[in-house]
Specification:
There is one protein chain. The chain is mostly helical. It contains 20 helices and five strands. The protein has helices spanning 23-30, 53-72, 84-95, 108-123, 153-162, 204-207, 212-225, 230-233, 246-250, 256-262, 272-294, 316-324, 330-342, 347-360, 365-375, 381-392, 407-414, 419-424, 444-450, 465-477, and strands spanning 9-13, 35-41, 78-81, 99-103, 127-131. It has a five-stranded parallel β-sheet with strand order 3-2-1-4-5, with helices on both faces. Strand 4 (99-103), helix 4 and strand 5 (127-131) form a beta-alpha-beta unit. Helix 14 crosses helix 16 (381-392). The protein is globular, with a radius of gyration of 24 Å. The N and C termini lie far apart (69 Å). Bound molecules: flavin-adenine dinucleotide. Flavin-adenine dinucleotide (FAD) binds at residues 234, 242-246, 249-250, 281-282, 284-285, 288, 347, 350-351, 354, 372, 376, 378-380, 383-384, 387-388, 391. Belongs to the DNA photolyase family.
Length: 480
């Protein structure tokens, strides 16, 4: 029998697939006791919720990267699948572990599983230690003067700013003590996280490197080349002024505190406005979790119940055309095709395609939220739901419903030369910049010259934006 002080500690990795700035791991390593790193693939109906197909691709590669990093420091990653309670019980009995460490998660199913587990394990005499690390600040920490959760972003941001710097990141452990013997592990290939027939993720690896090393490289490159013009450049999808850290943050390959601290002391080449604006975006992520934590139904129910009576009249066929990027509005189509090809979409374009689905096609925002959840590599239960409700006008501190994006003027403003459209809608690549966002207004000669045959090589608009706008406003005004 292992003496208690030498009993292993199970470190349960969840949305924290990193060694650096990982308090659950660091404290286990410091104890000098054997450490058993574990990842549990929880059933879809529990844990962190149904895993979208694009994020499943990411998870597969991220777990391989984590396993390799753990090997480098003399350890291992044990993979198991099933309900966390049953998996942990069997691991504890196999290994005589007497402690479990994890970093807290804040999605409602995760919170309820962890609360029940903590109680059950503690009752059975185990030590359970949970740590922060997924957010800049715990969602319970910031409260309004009246003691209630925030519902409006700006005061939330002010409170977050006033609460001081997030804790300094802790370094990755350089070695871990192994248990006397390793418990059995699943083979990751058996989890079938990768798409096969067809392999629609074939091009993901051209633009993404899942794992902690990829996250740190992405951060370094953003600090070097992107943040300098962040405030202005972040709205232009053809530029590379945004960090593209969201999928890494989503599975915790890097901590938001680590990202925040990397923006300190950048010197005169980067203005304070650029840094603050970037931190404000990181704070939107915290705000989204704050909302989800205090309103667990964020992904399924209108925050503002007034929208429950909204008449969604858009058809399945229109939804299908939107998912395929065949709406006849180039900026919308470019975004939807970027999503399919690389599992991502620029933030400005996310707002445009979301507005188009909800307000031009009159399709319930929840349909869009589901599609994004399945196709985004950064799919996040808080940011996705909060952002869709923000665009729909039904969310906390949302854009008003009547702010309906015009897909033509948005394209002209934020993709003035049409470079983004040309990249993802190649059949329009030869079109003059004057018409690239409205091919349906181009003279026949310009279309001929560019080899565009509307209704054949590229679709005619599936709705007339001006008429659709009026219909949306009428539907909105008919709400009580
Ligand atoms: P940067 O501009 O470099 O921002 C840095 C980080 O701040 C991001 O990585 C992200 O973690 C956070 N952030 C930035 N903007 C937002 C925002 N509006 N809300 C919350 N966090 C933000 N983001 C997701 O991470 N997952 C999602 O599932 C998701 N779904 C969205 C759905 C819609 C309809 C919209 C309009 C936005 C959605 N966003 C989502 C927010 C935002 O579009 C992405 O976080 C951003 O595009 C990621 O690119 P980046 O890493 O280059 O961002």
């Amino acid at each position: 029998m292992t003496s208690l002080s030498r009993s292993p500690i199970i470190v349960w990795f969840r949305k924290d697939l990193r060694l650096r700035d990982n308090l659950a791991l660091a404290t286990a390593a410091e104890s000098g006791r054997p450490v058993i790193p574990v990842y549990i693939l929880e059933p879809a109906s529990t844990g962190t919720g149904p895993l979208g197909a694009a994020q499943a691709w990411w998870l597969h590669h991220s777990l391989l990267a984590l396993a390799a990093s753990l090997k480098d420091i003399g350890s291992n990653l044990v993979l198991r699948s099933g309900p966390a309670e049953a998996v942990l019980a069997s691991l504890i009995s196999d290994t005589n572990a007497n402690a479990v460490h994890w970093n807290r998660r804040y999605d409602p199913p995760g919170v309820s599983i962890d609360t029940a587990l903590k109680e059950a394990l503690t009752t059975n005499g185990l030590t359970v230690r949970s740590f922060s690390g997924q957010l800049l600040h715990e969602p319970t920490r910031l409260r309004t003067g009246g003691g209630t959760p925030y519902r409006v972003y700006t005061p939330f941001w002010r409170a977050l700013e006033a609460s001081g710097k997030p804790p300094e990141p802790v370094p990755a452990p350089t070695s871990l003590t192994c248990p006397a013997s390793w418990p059995g592990s699943d083979n990751i290939e058996d989890w079938k996280l990768l798409p096969t027939h067809p392999n629609w993720a074939a091009e993901f690896a051209d633009v993404w490197q899942p794992g902690e090393a990829g996250a740190q490289e992405r951060l370094a490159s953003f600090i070097e080349n992107g943040i300098g013009d962040y405030r202005h450049g972040r709205d232009f999808p053809a530029r590379s002024n945004t960090s593209r850290l969201s999928p890494h943050l989503s599975l915790g390959e890097i901590s938001p505190a680590d990202v925040w601290h990397a923006t300190r002391g950048l010197g005169a080449s980067v203005s304070a406005e650029d840094v603050i604006h970037f931190r404000k975006e990181l704070a939107w992520r915290d705000f989204s979790y704050h909302l989800l934590f205090h309103f667990p139904e964020l992904a399924t129910k209108n925050w503002n119940p007034r929208f429950d009576a909204f008449s969604w009249s858009g058809s399945q066929d229109l939804f299908h055309r939107w998912t395929q990027g065949r709406t006849g509005y180039p900026i919308v189509d470019a975004g939807m095709r970027e999503l399919w090809r690389y599992g991502t979409m620029h933030n400005r374009v996310r707002m445009i395609v979301a507005s188009f689905l909800i307000k031009d096609l009159l399709i319930d925002w929840r349909e869009g939220e589901r599609w994004f959840r399945d196709t985004l590599v950064d799919a996040d239960p808080a940011s996705n739901a909060a952002s869709w409700q923000w665009v729909a006008g039904s969310g906390a501190d949302a854009a008003p419903f009547f702010r309906i994006f015009n897909p033509i003027t948005q394209g002209e403003k934020f993709d003035p030369d049409g470079d983004y459209v040309r990249q993802f809608v190649p059949e329009l690549a030869g079109l003059d910049a004057r018409y690239i966002h409205k091919p349906f207004e181009a003279p026949q000669a310009a279309l001929n010259e560019a080899g565009v045959r509307l209704g054949d090589t590229y679709p005619l608009p599936i709705v007339d934006h001006r008429k659709a706008r009026s219909m949306a406003m009428a539907a909105y005004q008919s709400l009580e």
